[in-house]
């Protein structure tokens, strides 16, 4: 009986996880392509610094850290729509990582 309860709780947890991630990435997916100037107008230097830390801590789990200069903002825009959900970052943290990357992207 106790086992059944544990299973039910686990199933609910998985359901919640599956239910939440597509929603979280929807915000990221719907972000417009922004250039460095637009990002600098929207985010503070502190936020961009936080983004750098989040990037270093979350983007080297599956592969080596990919340098921000390795891609243009346009390329990053589509890459990050796949990678931010992969890194399981929430919308807020995902946007800070994105801000850091776009500011430092290949120009
Ligand atoms: C859960 C594992 C995982 C995490 C976490 C992850 N990645 Fe990736 N990444 C992959 C895989 C797998 C590929 C290769 C396949 C692909 O391109 O989808 C990849 C490819 C890439 C590429 C090359 C894409 C291209 O088109 O050339 C870049 C750049 C990248 N990741 C950046 C990031 C950044 C930035 C983060 C953090 C937000 C991140 N990754 C987090 C798994 C991950």
From TrEMBL:
For whether the record's keyword set contains Ribonucleoprotein, the answer is no
| Superkingdom | Bacteria
Query: What Pfam families does the annotation carry?
Result: Cytochrom_C (PF00034)
By its UniProt entry, which PROSITE patterns does this protein fall under?
Answer: CYTC (PS51007), PROKAR_LIPOPROTEIN (PS51257)
User: InterPro entries under this entry?
Assistant: Cyt_c-like_dom, Cyt_c-like_dom_sf
Is the keyword Membrane assigned to this protein? no
Q: Which UniProt keywords apply?
A: Heme, Iron, Metal-binding
Task: Spell out the coiled coil positions from the record.
Answer: none
Domain called Cytochrome c: residue spans: 46-107
Q: What is this protein called?
A: C-type cytochrome
